[in-house]
């Protein structure tokens, strides 16, 4: 196996020069740099990542803490993070915090102890302990999907990337109201998450825009997971005046809602219209296909990597928040005829909003 000494000998330079080229720790003349890189290619030399980290204080690795196993939406985000990281020459270490504040703090600490250069985290509904840990250790961090607000006594600059939530949810509700529905139920996410708060706000806005009253009995929390969403759907169907249409606030909860409807022998959309906030791989395989709000999940991951690398390059940057637009995908589960329609972005706003 070739060594750095072998590379130096072939390129006709010192070992120190090879180190500066590979670790980018000092300017090197272009022709000298090229000679070193040519020698690396010719010898098939592979730098020692551990030795490089000792020289540069960087491991060229990113820690990602998302509930990828329990939430299929985050699997798509994971692909975007991985692609963005690999494109920039960074490796990825993954931890699953299970949306549990106690486990979240430990998972992030383990990633930090493995000397990742920075973290990308989908925070839980109660991230105070996490924020204090990150702030105390000044860990470069990007939060994705869910927005967080640091305690007033914590001075910690971080970045965030998420999608629009309120306006797209209002669009789903408005569409169902246009179809003649007057009792529209919502299977909402886990209380405390910004996505849950914003989507409930969008639900209420959509009702108000259609001239419909808000009835808290038509909102049941599915806690962002399948089983709880099934129970929430059952509770809504058991009302004296059950909803005639239902919106599930994420894809995992859509599965739970569909399971309960099947168990009760109800069909979509004949017995109950159904829309979903989140597109997913199987949404157009159901009969009828699901009308959804599609989130740019892969782009969320790629944007998170971009923000993190910018913060690593300039640690003093003020905190930034980037929101990405969603798209309304019109299929047949809302009760409309199955027609091919283009995706309609819910917002063209893109970029730092702060």
Please describe the structure with a list of short key phrases separated by commas or semicolons.
12 helices, 354 residues, 14 strands, 42% helix, single chain, alpha/beta
SSE map:
Elements: H1 4-11, H2 15-23, H3 30-43, H4 49-56, E1 61-65, H5 72-87, E2 91-95, H6 101-113, E3 118-121, H7 128-137, E4 141-144, E5 159-163, H8 166-178, E6 184-188, H9 194-209, E7 219-221, H10 226-237, E8 245-248, H11 251-263, E9 273-277, E10 291-294, H12 297-313, E11 321-324, E12 327-329, E13 344-345, E14 351-352
Parallel strand pairs: 1-2, 1-3, 3-4, 4-5, 5-11, 6-7, 6-8, 8-9, 9-10
Antiparallel strand pairs: 10-12, 11-14, 12-13
What does this structure look like?
This protein is 42% helix and 16% strand. The chain has helices spanning 4-11, 15-23, 30-43, 49-56, 72-87, 101-113, 128-137, 166-178, 194-209, 226-237, 251-263, 297-313; strands at residues 61-65, 91-95, 118-121, 141-144, 159-163, 184-188, 219-221, 245-248, 273-277, 291-294, 321-324, 327-329, 344-345, 351-352. Helix 11 (251-263) links the parallel strand 8 (245-248) and strand 9 (273-277).
